[in-house]
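User: Predict the complex.
Assistant: Input components as received:
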Amino acid sequence: MSRAPCVRFGNAKRAADLKLYLEDPDNFETLSVVFNRSSRFGRLQGIKCAIAGKNLYIRFTCSTGDAMGMNMVSKGVQNVLDFLQTDFPDMDVIGISGNYCSDKKPAAVNWIEGRGKSVVCEATIKGDVVRKVLKTSVESLVELNMLKNLTGSAMAGALGGFNAHASNIVAAIYIATGQDPAQNVESSHCITMMEAINDGKDLHVSVTMPSIEVGTVGGGTQLASQSACLNLLGVKGASKETPGANSRMLAAIVASAVLAGELSLMSAIAAGQLVKSHMKYNRSTKDVSKASS
Amino acid sequence: MSRAPCVRFGNAKRAADLKLYLEDPDNFETLSVVFNRSSRFGRLQGIKCAIAGKNLYIRFTCSTGDAMGMNMVSKGVQNVLDFLQTDFPDMDVIGISGNYCSDKKPAAVNWIEGRGKSVVCEATIKGDVVRKVLKTSVESLVELNMLKNLTGSAMAGALGGFNAHASNIVAAIYIATGQDPAQNVESSHCITMMEAINDGKDLHVSVTMPSIEVGTVGGGTQLASQSACLNLLGVKGASKETPGANSRMLAAIVASAVLAGELSLMSAIAAGQLVKSHMKYNRSTKDVSKASS
Amino acid sequence: MSRAPCVRFGNAKRAADLKLYLEDPDNFETLSVVFNRSSRFGRLQGIKCAIAGKNLYIRFTCSTGDAMGMNMVSKGVQNVLDFLQTDFPDMDVIGISGNYCSDKKPAAVNWIEGRGKSVVCEATIKGDVVRKVLKTSVESLVELNMLKNLTGSAMAGALGGFNAHASNIVAAIYIATGQDPAQNVESSHCITMMEAINDGKDLHVSVTMPSIEVGTVGGGTQLASQSACLNLLGVKGASKETPGANSRMLAAIVASAVLAGELSLMSAIAAGQLVKSHMKYNRSTKDVSKASS
Amino acid sequence: MSRAPCVRFGNAKRAADLKLYLEDPDNFETLSVVFNRSSRFGRLQGIKCAIAGKNLYIRFTCSTGDAMGMNMVSKGVQNVLDFLQTDFPDMDVIGISGNYCSDKKPAAVNWIEGRGKSVVCEATIKGDVVRKVLKTSVESLVELNMLKNLTGSAMAGALGGFNAHASNIVAAIYIATGQDPAQNVESSHCITMMEAINDGKDLHVSVTMPSIEVGTVGGGTQLASQSACLNLLGVKGASKETPGANSRMLAAIVASAVLAGELSLMSAIAAGQLVKSHMKYNRSTKDVSKASS
């Protein structure tokens, strides 16, 4: 997880001084000790700086055990800022978050650097299954993926949006398992790839998602329904053997559900079924008085 | 609301032929009649094309009454595609959605062209209020906005993410009122501006949100709790006097809540209170067994 | 060609008033007369507004005959701003260029809306030629294009950069023909598509370039060498029969040269020849004392 | 300088294996030895990987002495790919450049990671000078910068284009000193900041340019005029004392010229002089027959 405060100096030279100090491997241990003081699980992993004139944006990344970890990282960052004030008394802390983090906004820094968990999920789908179950062909899916998810998104000026509907699945799981649904903005960054393999007979499909922000402790994970859902998935609470294992597994579950969702929607579109399916399963044409949501 | 199918021809010349046909004002009436056939409320508003070689992406936009309108526009698009097949028999429909729409993905086309409702919300905050209630100063807020929401987001390579946390508010309202929370990806596109006015004494704050996708009929708006929330806000169901008035009002409510959220968080950051507030109100330190969410 | 001044009002309401006025089709004729006053060739084509709070960005587009036309459009915009001051006396002109134009910067608005000339150029290359001349295969080129120009650029967070090296060709022609080489930033926006046709035997290749900014009169086109180059290409000066025909032809020449360049470099990469070719033709290993460039 | 080949495996698992191998600090020395073999100056600095399903994009960065270094880095990359083939025989090299480099395309990876030299240049301009020489005020410049270079570019969906006209200066110097003018696409990435200091009396201005790609040896630097220009600037050829010092100095010269250009144009716009200046100095109204360009 990452957090990036913005600090300002009297001139760019001083901002660069701090940048060099922070990026010097010799100082990393000291900074880690300071950062890690506030939490049992938060462990500083890296520091990446961006300068804009005399303003410095410092992106701290840390491991967070099984928590999503925004508060953990914010506290660690506050520790480091307090510590730096001694050696850099002319440092003016503009804000603990300077939007270079970048939380709940579509931003290239997350797409390039990752945030939360970075997951790749893949599957091979036999040509037979594509035809009989998905009612389309390997060739059609590969072509649709190239023209919709790659080219169409390129034409639309997409940022990390090279997929059909990752956001649907991410939003649903986030609500069900007590994640922060406002984070699906970047958590649903995804590139879906479909390639013909085995001489064109079978389909290789994958989703690559660099910034899935999830936790299995803290926040909404403690609510009754949400906790039950996590339990159902076998990832409730903190992993005792390997801290972080539960939240990593949850991220893998998110990605695999997205992969299934991509296969399903892409097949429906390739088969020309999208409109018909929406009409058939549309909530508004049903009696929803008993639906739980 | 918009939907953009992808169609393909044997060559770019033919794709350009269709583009010219679709963008010719003389054909708009005919296309409207065909498009509007499927719905009482969906009314074709515009057609914008993008070519990538021999592939054409056709972004249809239509008014949708008080519904969010994705299904409505999809059906209208299907009508037009069926109609075009007569005059363009060599047109190969690759998919009813070609990602140039662009639904549930961060994409410049929504930021530039808008999608759903485009709303600007503004307020003037007296300097007194900024000091006494928000515990900060006009000058600090203006500076923080410039360095965080504008410069920080620019450094992060943001797309439509020039705000502090619009997504938090959008996600919350969308869940509460039965909207599609997966659409908060682009619905939370927002640029927050803060400028000193009246000789620096007072604060002018605004949020500009070009793609708020909401409806007050259909979908999740019919669920019991969600329906109650819409009722509470006075925007439940279809407006009988002015179709679309309820959904437009809901979009305005979203934007004004975002404005309030921006003021609040920005003030907390400017006052250096962010970490402390999160610790104080953190759900995990409370007894949440009775919380409803 | 486009130019977008930034104007500011006391509140967003007033900025919206001007937006509605400018986008009202009934006012277009009046605005055109005012705009067109300053030039024989500049003809207002459209007005597109973007609001950010109480600030309005007004993107004027106009045809410019055979000139690239930046000065022409700037003068027309100045006319309109002067004219508007009467009805909108509270309008504060912040700058004649508000970066929503957008000139010499990579910006989605040019990729989505176009600037200068928008050109698609296509070719069918026989499989035989691909093998014998380009020393590669249709399949390899299609795959390389998908993985490099589409997927690789998507991973890199590209904006309008879905090509191999359009900028090389654009820069070279711009210098040779007296264009503004600083404009190759957006003039080289390009998506290159390669698709197998005729049952996979042949290659369909295209380049789509939405914002080629060129002119055949004015600026550097009058210099001796540059003028000679334009003459050689048959597009020197203003077309007498059809104003704009020469500059449109020059844009088509740029795109077709880019297509040739894409085919050449992509083939070299597919054949694994890139490094070897650069070593062989590298200027630094040759006697360049007599080279003219 | 950076170069990023694209390689493909049979599945994502294997692509991840190579990613882990390449990012393991224990392997860096071996890889460096292999990479550095081809050149006296090229020294591997870092490796950054991006996965898209079973395809891996490997961005190698290396120092290049006083050369711009594209060929140097390409050769080093080729060495590493040949070397890896032994341990990863199932690795399929799709292309030596996979567009994740990213050369001559606007791409977030350069804006976030840098390419070539990353430079910040700053200056303090006394209020007196702003008034008397630049004919405007500190307040106007600060405001114009906020509304044009930050907000206007944000509205336009800019990527690294938060400046007024960096590209003009970069293009001019690149042509004059024998650089590759096609690289001004990313070399002109720039964020211009203007802030009032000393209680609003004076102006602090800076330009931050993360990807200036220049060299003082090789390529066009050997041509007569270009070589003379480099000599004039005192940065001709390779620095004997400190390899790379000349090219770093040239990058600093580029940035400082951009800073001067920003000050000049921004002042002209703030003073409402842009159109008038262009009319006055327009080449087309002069006798240019003797102009050298």
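The longest strand of chain B covers residues 202-212.
Let me know if you want any component modeled separately.
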